[in-house]
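Hi, here's the filled form for the chain we discussed.

Project: internal
Contact: R.S.
Residues: 89
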Amino acid sequence: MLVVNVQGRVFMDQLDDPFAAIERELAACPIGLVSDAIMIDMHAETTSEKMAMAHFVDGRPRWSRAPYHVPTADSQILLHGTGYISDAA
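And the returned structure, exactly as it came back:
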């Protein structure tokens, strides 16, 4: 299993681009070839940035989550099968 943790940029100190970082990791460890499951853990302040990441990776990892905040009850399965929840913690 590949576990990747990234940090968003909105209202946070600027780090590496989380979208580029995820793209690199998914390319390096394709599901079914190198890993049997991929979990993306994203710490971000805005639900919109977390949802943007979910749509960016939809269909590639099998589960993604963004913890550390009050649960928002927005769990869903996206169009290509990626599970998403904003604030699972």
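Let me know if anything looks off before we file it.
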